[in-house]
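*** Protein under study ***
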Amino acid sequence: MARFGSLSLFLWSCIIINAASPAQAQAATSPTSTVSMLSKTDPLNTLLLQGFNWESAKSSSPWYNLLKGIVDDAAEAGITDVWFPPPSQSVAPEGYLPGKLYDLDSSYGSEQQLKDAVNAFHQKGIGIVGDIVINHRCGTKKDDKGYWCVFEGGKGDGSLDWGPWAVTVNDKPYACGSGQTDTGEDFTGAPDVDHTNTKIQQDLSEWMNWLKSNVGFDGWRFDFVKGYAGNLVGGYIQNTTPKFAVGEMWDTDRQKVVDWVHSTGDRASAFDFPTKGILQDALKSNDLSSLKDSDGKPAGMIGILPQKAVTFIENHDTGSTQNIWPFPSDKLLQGYAYILTHPGIPTIFYDHFVDVNLKNGIKNLTAIRKRNNINGNSNCRIITAEGDLYMAAIDEKIVMKIGPRFDVGKLAPPSPEYGIAASGKDYCVWEKKSSSAD
């Protein structure tokens, strides 16, 4: 979810633009509609690619069609899952002010183009993670108080048709709701949905299961999970059985992020905002000592719950054209050298994956990760964390370093047992020569 950025234009006028959506009826009988038959590998081996940026919705060609152009590269890089943008009709073109949830004609392309893109990745064994924006919703009509709190599902049969009863009571600035008190933070851009309502839980679960069966989504990325209680997110996961689920719990306090994961019944993973913040600050300040906590573990979420930590360098909010919380642009490969060698579930940002100056370096690092079976729960032994040097051994199969110090002296792994597998400006990865054959 954007920290408002260009969404500010819409904050006080959550009005649906009623575009015709004939593709839904067509797609119902389309022979190319795809249902995922993927047999998901161990979630700890997930390597996620975010398949869009903040400008993707404004592409001159349908974004779904452009995504098909990176399928082969994604497969070659060992990507297991691609995170797609929000699929439904939305007031904001980026998809984060959704209205008619069953209407899958969006700024990214038509419903059929979405299905075709999903199928193209499935043909290579790559799963698709849908961006689920359900904390809030935009109405299609005004209620008797003049608020846009009458909702239409877009299917034409009453599914997901709601009224003010679906909005949390005392929601600000949408004082139309007669539901229960909000279980999370307010989102001022659209009416907040009352997720304690069992009909809403049922309706949204049915919609998500329809996304799985009709489109082929394999997993979920839950947007703005601070907006409603974690146990409710866990309920949606339980009702829809995705192969992978992650929440956008935007907080730099790693214990709060871990607590949120536990609140879902440990059904969801969470984006590791703490690791992103610590890593980029350490690289900006040239003080890498902060990458080790007082227990000698990695200082982010990966230090205490790595199997549920989805690490990343940048996303559509923090980087891209919004640039809300950017990673230092001259240190991106150092960032990837860290997250692609460390425990956790790493994510590669679309802009970086297609950048000719970064692509080969990233693919080399993903190959090292795959070759050595580094996964979400791998062991990380920090060798040193000093001002200008950070070194760690992962599963005792690889050793990595970041930081400007070139001569690491006796800290370098022994040769010929280890050889350099990847290197670049201020980073290096050594690989145990026998490990790839283990």
